[in-house]
Amino acid sequence: MRTGLVVVLGLIAAGIALRPLEGPAWEKIQAKQPQLRLESLKDALGQGVTVGLLGGFRAIVADLFWIRTNAVWEENDLPGTQTSIKLVTAIDPRPLYFWLNGSRMIAYDMPNWRIDKAGGYDVVPEAVKRRFDEEQSKVAVNYLNNGLDFHPDNPLLVLEIANVYLNRLKDVETAAKFYRQASEHPDAPYYAARIYAELLRRLERREEAYAFLTKLHPTLPPDNMMAQAVVVLDRIRELEDELNVPAVKRYRDPNGTPTPPPRMPGLDVDVSDLLPAPVAP
Prior knowledge:
The protein is an all-alpha fold.
């Protein structure tokens, strides 16, 4: 009894002593949190939950809501999943994981759910399938653009927009535009530029692809496997053959990278093999 009383009194004394530090510490935690968009949360959270309670615990709350999102996603609940995805990033917009995987659910899973609900791929007309793809892709792209408000310097969100246009909508022209935009970012993965050039080739814009690759190649570190300088040089040589570029005007590699031997027939890699596959939640 006496020991318990001493512990209680000690905790009370410690609480009183730390009280002057509590306010500044709590303000510092809250200052590091992105500003909550109250209009986004007011309706979604419902009555009985106040925004102030989230405070410094927003990351934990967002993680819990993401677990709930996965549970709803497994039930193919389109409105519930879509609402829950947006709620998670409204609570905590910092993790890219939420934005990327949320957009993939919207763009790749939800059209399939709608087609299944409408009778399946063998029953639903192609025009209706296309409409489902376009509607869900529009939601996904808008969602990713919202993510860019919080991560304006991150090329991965731009790449994800490009992937939606290429993989879901088969809109090569628009996809190329976004791959180019992403490739211009200093932190962009090397494959963004390579895909852009491949899409130019697919669009029969070989002269543009050649000009782009000849400017790109000298900037690639030859000893970085991810940069694939040899592969880029190989594509330059292929374009020179396709465009009948005279030998005296052909690209001269400033790094002295040896020209790779011609690829054997059947070993060409399709551009889709270069694209990151959608990640399941």
